[in-house]
Amino acid sequence: MQELINTCVSTLPKDERLKKFGSVKMIDSTTVSMRLRFFDWAKFRKTKAGIKMHTSMDGPTGIAERIIFSNAACHNQTKMDELMTDKGTVYICDKGYIDYKKIEILVSN
Asked: Residue 48 forms beta bridges with which residues?
């Protein structure tokens, strides 16, 4: 994916890229495991605690633009509305964020 983004970025000036493709953002999450004994407020499994960090990054630069924290048990789909807010933007994400009904609403707006 990075190679594809680099090719697109290097072949078109920024103004032309935005006209042709819109902006590109990548969305992903990572789980930070913690000891249940010390972080019982973050319980997400029988013997584990943790938080999840949902991040929206600018595609060409890789700079994080939005970070949302949740309990690790939180499903990625529940954070789509908070992460996918920009119109005219191509979002790249893994299947954990796929909710076709929400995507249809986002595309039609």
From this structure: 35
Residue 16 lies inside a defined structural domain of this protein? no
- Looking at the chain, list the stretches that DSSP marks H as alpha helix, in order from N- to C-terminal side: 2-11, 14-21, 80-83, 100-108
Residue 13 included in any domain? no
Phi, psi of 92 (to 5 degrees): -115, 125
Residues 37-61: tens digit of each pLDDT: 898 888 988 889 999 999 999 987 8
Determine the structural domain holding residue 65 and report its residue range. 24-108
Count the residues in the chain.
Answer: 109
Identify the sign of the CA torsion 79, 81, 87, 93.
positive
Contact 56, 65 (CB under 8 A): yes
φ/ψ of residue 85, rounded to 5:
-110, -15
Residue 15 covered by a domain:
no
